[in-house]
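Appendix B. Worked example

We walk through a single record from start to finish. Start with the input: the chain for Fructose-1,6-bisphosphate aldolase, Thermus aquaticus, length 305.
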Amino acid sequence: MLVTGLEILKKAREEGYGVGAFNVNNMEFLQAVLEAAEEQRSPVILALSEGAMKYGGRALTLMAVELAKEARVPVAVHLDHGSSYESVLRALRAGFTSVMIDKSHEDFETNVRETRRVVEAAHAVGVTVEAELGRLAGIEEHVAVDEKDALLTNPEEARIFMERTGADYLAVAIGTSHGAYKGKGRPFIDHARLERIARLVPAPLVLHGASAVPPELVERFRASGGEIGEAAGIHPEDIKKAISLGIAKINTDTDLRLAFTALIREALNKNPKEFDPRKYLGPAREAVKEVVKSRMELFGSVGRA
Ligand SMILES: O=C(COP(=O)(O)O)N(O)CCCCOP(=O)(O)O
Ligand SMILES: [Ca+2]
Ligand code: NA
Ligand SMILES: [Zn+2]
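Next comes the structure step. The output line below is what the pipeline stores for this chain.
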């Protein structure tokens, strides 16, 4: 059933588990994520970035909203990294039940003002809002404190930000970053900072840049002809710890892209004569589904629907 992001995330934070927000760009990703959620009896968030909205258009948003309504588990349809008020309005008009307004690159007052504006519009139509405070950036552990404070989320600021904006959940910067290169070896995650934020912000917290970029997946991508450098993701133990400290929504995109692409490369390499897209998109869809199912196990959302 189609529900708001807050309905899913409030319960997750209260009961101490995480819910995956999986980025979808086409039919196969949508099917993979929803099938995984039903098989795992897990709530799930379908995340569409502005790039996904541009790429998939009505085909994608219609599928996402309608399939969410028909799903046998709670599903929210979420705008990921909304960059403007207008972009958020478009998502609201398309029937989304969760929207992110990402003004974390602006100064504090601008972020507050722009986020408040989106909260008023979204709440007027029963949709819940994700905001962001802090700059997503891989941080070496021994980086100077003032540099960390300049980038990562300041706990006291977060409390004031949430009170002044009325946002429903908050994306925090504690050392993660988007993509396949999150740092050298095991990225430093500032759990002490997260603990302070969680004490001051009772709202569900969101972790961006949370993909694991597992070595076996990177290897399959390389072995099938893919080119990727020294990739590193977030360690599963850091994900579990972050959830125990208050993270309720965990964004995963890179792991799905790597799985989908590696399987297509393998299928094309194996059968050069093949030109039925179902023969290589099908196995790729299955691989994405398996990644989603294992992420749900890691987050503790299995059986929570
Ligand atoms: O936090 C994340 C994903 O983190 P990850 O990269 O660790 O999976 N996200 O918010 C996903 C970002 C998706 C960007 O999509 P476009 O390419 O369409 O702009
Ligand atoms: Ca941001
Ligand atoms: Na988001
Ligand atoms: Zn993100």
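Two observations about the output. The radius of gyration is 19 Å. The domain at 5-299 is CATH 3.20.20.70 (TIM Barrel).
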